[in-house]
Amino acid sequence: MTTAARANGSRDLPHPALDEIRLESVLHALSDPMRLQVVRELAADGDELSCSHFDLPVTKSTTTHHFRVLRESGVVRQAYRGTAKMNGLRRDDLDDLFPGLLDCVLAAAARQADRLGG
């Protein structure tokens, strides 16, 4: 850990490099309704949100699993800020690798939510 990271109280979490992000991993991460909800909220906010911001109807350990899948697939970047684990959508990376994919998935998810009343 760098001196700056220690001074900021942050801990490094493993993230895939851009060339390690695979389409099948991204699609798997986005295929779960809870993970898709997280991605939709991050996209709508446009900034980093803490894990505690999300009110998912699952246990804390399941929520932790969902965030790990999103991070390990390259969909989100996580960083500790003090005691909060902050999450940011890796939109630029995903758009560079898979142009239009994220926008299409988010638009389809919004249409589905409207259709199903959620």
UniProtKB/TrEMBL annotation:
Keywords: DNA-binding, Transcription, Transcription regulation
Superkingdom of the source species: Bacteria
Domain HTH arsR-type residue range list: 15-109
Signal sequence segment: none
SMART domains in alphabetical order: HTH_ARSR
Name this protein carries in UniProt: Helix-turn-helix transcriptional regulator
Source species of the chain: Streptomyces siamensis
